[in-house]
Structures are given as C-alpha cells and as structure tokens.
Amino acid sequence: MTKKKISQTDDPIRKARHYATQAHKRISHRRKYTNQPYGIHLQAVAELVTSVTDDPEMIAAAWLHDTVEDTPVTFQDIEKEFGAGVAQLVLDLTDVSKASDGNRAVRKAIDRGHLAQAMPRAKTIKLADLIDNCRDICNNNPRFARVFLTEMAALLEVLGEGDAKLFTQAKETLSDCAASLKMERIPILSQGWGQEASSADELLSHQHAQLQFITAFTAKDIAEPLRSFDGEQKAPGILKKMEELNLYTAGVRIDGYVDGYVLPADLCKDKLATCRRQFRKDQVLDGDASLAEVIHVLTRHNHCFVSLLGSVGGIIIRSDIQKPIVRMWLFGMITLIEMNLAERIRAKWTDESWAGLISSSRLSKAKELFDERRRRKQNCDLLDCLQFSDKARIIIEDPEHLKELGFQSKSLAKQVSKELESLRNNLAHAQDIVTHDWPQIARMAKRFEKMLSR
Predict the structure, then answer these.
(1) Gap between the Cα atoms of 136 and 93, Å rounded
(2) Residue where a domain terminates, one of 131, 150, 180
(3) Nearest 5°: CA angle at 220, between 216 and 223?
(4) If 145 and its partner were Cys, which of 120, 138, 270, 325 is the partner (CB 3.0–4.6 Å)?
C-alpha cells in the first residue's frame, strides 16, 4: 500500500514552519549577533517545544511566535491561515506594550502582566523562547546579558504554569549564564537598569524638530469615519448594505454606542450583535495618538480603531499610510536622520578629510552639484551635496561612530541605511510604500515612538 504524501495544508506544523521562515526571510530578518537567518531561532524554539509535547497548535505557534511582532503579518492573517487556537497562542506571546508607555522597565512590566494572563500552553512556548534567547545573548553580548537575565528572572515568576521540564531547563540556563558572567545575585527588575543602545535612536539630535515632526500629525488626521449599524438589525440585511456601500468593516452599536465591529465574513443569520468582534485593547487609540502609535497597531492588526469623544468613531487600515500626510511625516523624519549624519561628519572631520571615505565617482558627482549650487549663489558646502547613502557610508566606515550608534557590524548598518534610502526614494517618487517598505516603516515608527516617550 502506497503511503499518502502529506501536504503543507494537511500538516499545520510544516505549513507554520514554511509560513514563518518565509515571513522573516522577506524582510531579511536575521539574528542580531550571529547574523544567521532568523529561522535558526524559530527552529530552536520549535524543537524545544517538540521535546515536551506533540500538540500541533503549540508547535505551530512556536514557529510563528515572532511573526506578528517582527514582520508585516497580523493576528488576523494568523487566524485565517492557522485557526483561532494558534492565533490566540501567538497573541499571548506577542508583547502588548508601546514605547510611549514609558521606559524599558515599565514596558517590560506591562508585557509581563500580559504574559501572566496567558494560557499554560503559551507559557511553555515562552519558556523555550527564553532558553534560546538567553544562550544567544549571553554568548554574544555579556553587557546586555546582565539586563536580560534580570528581565528573564522576573518573567519566570509568571511562567510557572508552563511545562515543568522546560521551566527547570530555563532556570538552569539562567543560572549557568549568571555564573559565567559572575553575577552573584540577579536583582529584581527596576527603573535603574540601563537600556541596550538602539541603532537609530541616536541618529536624531535635533530635539525640537524631532518632537515637532513626531507629534505634528495624529490618528484623527488620517482616520476614516467608521460606518456603524444597530446591533438589533438582522445580519443578512447588513451584509447587503455593506456590499452596496463597499464597506469591508462596520461598527456595531449596542444601546447607541459602538461596541464592536464586523467583517463581511463574520455575518451570520442572527442579529448583528451576535456576530460582532470585540475591540482589543491594543487595537483602539485616542484621536490624539501619534502616527508612530498608529503604525505600531497596524503591525499587529488589520484595523486600527480611533476613539473620538469617548467612543470609537474612526478606522485606519494600512492603505491609509499611503496618504500624503503620512508620506510627508515619514520623509521629514528621514530628513532629520540625514541632517544628524551631516552633523556627525562635520564634528569629526573639520577639514573635509571625509572625502577619502567615499568613491571617487560619488565625490565627483557631489563636486559637480556643489559647483552648480555655487554658480546659483546658493549657500552650501561640499558635504551638503552628498547623497544620503554617501553620508551613511562615511559614518559606517568609522568604527567610533558605528559603536556609538549601537550597530554590531558594518553589514547591519549598511542594511539599515539601504532600507531608509529605499523608503525615501519610494516616498519621493510616489511609489507604494506599504507593499514595498512596510517593515522599514514599522521599525522606524517604533524608534520614533520610543524617542517621544523620552
């Protein structure tokens, strides 16, 4: 008898492995310290989970645990592809804090509280994640490892419901790493612990201009009105209305207030109220929330809902990031980064000795532009005539600046520079930034949000 070949569709674990590795691969996501493909970490976590259970949803979620947090994939995408059970596990494993919530200690406390409420199956996966991350960080960054071990110890306090074998292994890994770092005692997480340097945080020194750009536009500036219907109405009739109005999402009113939403696929044969989805806490923003916070929500959910006068009245989806206001905001922030690069170069190389750090062809183009600007009586110097990539190249070639900016390698710094330049070019030429540049937008917004919180 011939053995039936199992397709990815029939095997959720194989499907999850392929889906997750491809999602991280599409954004060139690699391990920070070793530069290995990110799938190496996902495989390690999945193997640890497999060592204690054969639950296919848990193993699938182990492969998928970072997709919503790190890639353009949303919770709704996970639910559609793998079902509500896997989606809930991934939701439990995804941090809920925002940079605007406070400093690192505050944010970690919020995420720890979220994890404390997670189901035991999710806690088992988190234990596997901590074990692999602990080994990686302790082997490659002893300084930050001291911070991480403290945070890990605090997390273990709420992970006791996870698998006993992995819980013991996590404690032993923590103890071994602490011993290797000669940490006699791991203190409770506190406000005093330092924070790992962010590669882009230090790029912006124009504090006033930075604040102006980050806060200039808000959620209510780009939100579209959320059309809503009374929950007592019959769902089939609402489906017809949604099709007529070309609505992909509609609010549901209960006693006059919008108390949830529906998608066309949600509509049943009963009252609209029985079909509705509840708003998640991390899915609703105040109308005055920053665009960085909006993007943060849209990295996790397909819809960001906006509260106006105490009630949800607006909706933002990813395509709204194409709007002129957002494009102008993003372009302005990249310009501030470029200004800071120029400041750093002028402070380090006062006599234009930086010229030796770029190619002769790039320098020649800059000189041509400089001569033309001088002919037009424009006030500038040669550095002003360099392209963004040229300025980044100069900074990257200097080990001191590379270290100050927190980059682990030139290759990582070059990748960030390339992504920023690509985003800027697509902004300037009216290209589709959501399709081509969403990972870069999400990462940059997260950094700006963190700056705002300071």
Answers:
(1) 19
(2) 180
(3) 125
(4) 138
Q: Domain check: are 71 and 105 in the same one?
A: yes
Residue range 290-305, pLDDT digits in tens = 898 999 999 999 999 9
Residue 400 binned pLDDT confidence (cut-offs 50, 70, 90): confident
C-alpha radius of gyration, the chain, whole number: 25
Q: Looking at the structure, do residues 430 and 333 belong to the same domain, yes or no?
A: yes
186 in a structural domain: no
Is residue 89 a part of any domain in this protein?
yes
Residues 342 and 437 reside in one and the same domain? yes
Task: Give, in degrees to the nearest 5, the angle at Cα 204 between 212 and 108.
Answer: 90
Residue 298 and residue 419 share a domain: no
Query: What number of other Cβ atoms are within 10 A of residue 375's Cβ?
Result: 8
Kindly state whether residues 371 and 302 are assigned to the same domain: no
In the beta sheet, which residues pair with residue 312?
307
pLDDT in tens, 172-216: 999 899 888 887 666 543 333 333 334 444 444 455 556 666 677
Which residue range forms the structural domain that includes residue 372? 324-453
In the predicted model, what is the mean pLDDT of residues 444-448? Answer: 73
pTM (two decimals): 0.71
Q: What is the CATH number of the domain that holds 255?
A: 3.10.580.10
Q: Ranked by mean pLDDT, which of 274-278, 331-335, 340-344 comes out on top?
A: 274-278
